[in-house]
Amino acid sequence: MNYEQGKLVLITGATGHVGHAVLLRALSAEYQVRITLREPSKAALIRDSLPGRDHLHRLSFVTVCDFTQRGAFDEALQDVSYIIHIASPLQRPAYTDYNRDIIAPTVQGTSNLLHSALNHPTVQRIVITSSTSAILDINPTNNLPLTPSDHPISPTHRHPNYGPDFITSSEHAYIAAKTAALNLASAFRAQNSPHFDIIHLLPGYVFGPKGLATTPREAISGSNVFGIGLVMRKGSWRDWVVEAMSCHVDDIAEAHVNALDPRVAGNQDFILSVPFRPEEVKSIIRKRFPEEGDMVKEGIFAGGNEYYRWFHVSYDVSSSEEMLLGRKLRGIEEQIVDSAKQVLALVKN
């Protein structure tokens, strides 16, 4: 039983991969949940995605059209005890104005949320979704890490903000935005001594079922393209260089909600990321889904003949496993199997 049950949690980004999983977990933990939406019409999509209607009375919505506007969250934070801030633009080739499309929503959105929370004494804790890319030192010429692979990176590590010369692609803009937002929140905490705690969760690529996906293509949009997408995508990866470190969506969702527990000390950060090798994905599919041979040979899982370049990073995940989950993080096999089950269900339906 969650003894914080009934307290109001504001969640941003609930229509996304991680956000929807966090929403379901928070409702299951019997929190009252308020969702921010840029488009009010998406409220019906969220309601219809819930397993049954038992939780509807604890779910509400508030419209926040533009996170970059000063005071954007003032109304949304009324009577809120906890905030889970997940919303953040992903790297997409279609983005051309990196500041407008990626950096400003991430950095200014975080700043506006934190400053609004200062004016709401009911707020006790803010959990922010960051990324391992925010603490990794990336060489802009080859996208490889400058930090030695045998040097474990702890959750307290920080990387200086990147300059404009680094931001030459949506991928680099995402890294720069996550880095700047993490540094901003750390500086905010030091300068303002707020009445609330701030906790950051830093996952690698998040793999696993996407709660709002209705097609296989939707299931592999976002970070899943680097997981189950390896056996579904048939094009060339060209010059892609990927940090082959991942986290199961259920682990990151559980960690977000568990981080609200006041028994977890505030003002600390947690890394959730385990290593994998891209060539493992096809082997996992063949081993775990032998009855789907046709799907592997010529169907939905017939890709996977080419891989992106990749590297591993040594992260200290002990605090996540010990304090937030009470167990080991799920490995790549479970991440891929659960992703594949969703894809197969979508194909067959």
TrEMBL record:
Cited Gene3D superfamilies: NAD(P)-binding Rossmann-like Domain (3.40.50.720)
Domain NAD-dependent epimerase/dehydratase: residue ranges: 9-265
Keywords: Oxidoreductase
Keyword Chaperone attributed: no
Entry's Gene Ontology molecular function annotations: oxidoreductase activity, acting on the CH-OH group of donors, NAD or NADP as acceptor
Segment forming the signal sequence: none
InterPro entries (UniProt xref): Epimerase_deHydtase (IPR001509), NAD(P)-bd_dom_sf (IPR036291), NAD(P)_dehydrat-like (IPR050425)
Superkingdom field: Eukaryota
UniProt keyword Oxidoreductase, yes or no: yes
Similarity comment text for this entry: Belongs to the NAD(P)-dependent epimerase/dehydratase family. Dihydroflavonol-4-reductase subfamily.
Name by which UniProt lists this protein: PKS/NRPS-like protein biosynthetic cluster
Organism: Aspergillus niger
